[in-house]
Amino acid sequence: xxxxxxxLSLRLALCVAAxxxxxxxxxxxxxxxxxxxxxxxxxxxxxxxLVLPPTVLGFYMLxxxxxxxxxGRLWYAAFGHGLAFTFAGLVIxxxxxxLPFAVQPLxxxxxxxxxxxxDASSVLGAGRMRxxxxxxxxxxxxxxxxxxxxxxxxxxxxxxxxxxxxxxxxGVTRTVSIDIxxxxxxxxYAGASRTALLLLVISFVVLSAxxxxxxxxxxxxxxxxxMK
Amino acid sequence: xxxxxxxxxxxxxxxxxxxAEAAHNIRVAxxxxxxxxxxxxxxxxxxxxxxxxxxxxxxxxxxxxQIQNGAPFDVFLSADIEYPRKLxxxxxAEPGTLYxxxxxxxxxxxxxxxxxxxxxxxxxxxxxxxxxxxAIGNPExxxxxxxxxxxxxxxxxxxxxxxxxxxGENIAQAAQFVASGNxxxxxxxxxxxxxxxxxxxxxxxxxxxxxxxxxQAAVILRNAKDKDGARAFLIFLKSAEARKILESxxxxxxxxxxxx
Lengths: 228, 260
Known about the structure:
The complex is a heterodimer. Chain A has eleven helices and no strands. Chain A has helices at 3-33, 39-51, 54-65, 70-79, 87-111, 115-123, 128-139, 141-156, 160-165, 176-185, 189-217. The radius of gyration of chain A is 20 Å and the shape is globular. The N and C termini of chain A lie far apart (40 Å). Mean pLDDT of chain A is 87; it is low at 221-228. By secondary structure, chain B is of the alpha/beta class. Chain B has two domains: 2-103 and 213-257, 3-Layer(aba) Sandwich (D-Maltodextrin-Binding Protein, domain 2); 106-205, D-Maltodextrin-Binding Protein, domain 2. Chain B has a five-stranded mixed sheet with strand order 2-1-3-10-4, sandwiched between helices. A five-stranded mixed sheet of chain B has the order 7-6-8-5-9. The N and C termini of chain B lie far apart (64 Å). The mean pLDDT of chain B is 88. The A-B interface holds A 62-63, 65-68, 72, 81-82, 84-85, 163, 165, 167-169, 182, 184-187 and B 59, 61-62, 64-65, 68, 132-133, 135, 138, 140-141, 165-169, 177, 180-183.
């Protein structure tokens, strides 16, 4: 089993989950409460990675990260090297790839907060920020956990995008799914199945945790997603 | 209610058992370096024979694993003779059909707008600070990747460029890494470097004595559905016409592969 690849995948998944929490909470808040008439367009954009093949996302990322892409040029100007084949490149691609897995449970969770509580809070003189911190956030803890865990797990299992922009560098971009693929191709089935089994167990544990948390909280954040 | 059900079953049956349109349907698993050459070869052969050639391109190692697990191909055109040999040893190849159809060559390739003077510097071009990433095929399972590493070692610069290497899943992906500008140089198959999309770039041919020969070999698979079609296609591959096409894509054809 390739411990280096496993640790890399865990590091990547942790980074992505943390970044997605920071981006996802304000984005989901806006999507849940805004009345802007074109909001549905943004909702569609956020959900795109759910339906797009990872190769499409990976292909666009590779072009964007290249010397002719905006992202690549910006990165080159700042750091003096390209973005493809780097850990940072993987993080950026994975954030896009896992975006709906963080944002959708958050929206679902924010939307289930009782409007009366929000009205009461505002009548009692709390501003939006305070209402968010004192009412919405505490009531959305299961949704936040769901978002964190799902974006973590989804990034852990990412393959197509990494294959497109990674370049298979040991310790930098050779994630555990790429390692399994490599082993299967080199006919090292024993090695492939050991790592694959471990990934299966981790995924099962993670999903059990999500269902367990949601059940205990009696909350519908998970149940109402993605069927909402 | 029985009538619509019956016609539905009939429809499904019709969809499944369509009469064959072509004389032969040959399914080929081909190494990624053949992408352009085999497109042309297949087109010519289809015109001549009325057979249909369906090619899947990928890394030879991947195909080996797939074939061992029952992938439905008739012919395997590998970039490395070792893989078909393994199939033969495992009893998965039609005995006596294995032959080397071409020798592959590798080149250093850079986009046309590179500032590095590749033709003057040769190997040293890879040491230029402008070259931050060098794309090669994954040496673990792509024959061209292995040849690239061997050549870099023989040139005595492997340790110096090691940190710059990025691996394509197969040689075509390595080519795409350079063509998209994400890597500044690549060690690629000559057949890809002179293909229409990459012809404009700069290239430096790596001397063949710098790496073990990239012997590309074909074999008919034991599980082939259309063995006659497969045999006929291999005979075509040995013909003077096919050899000329292979040579125009940068392959040299070993003497053993000449039938007439």
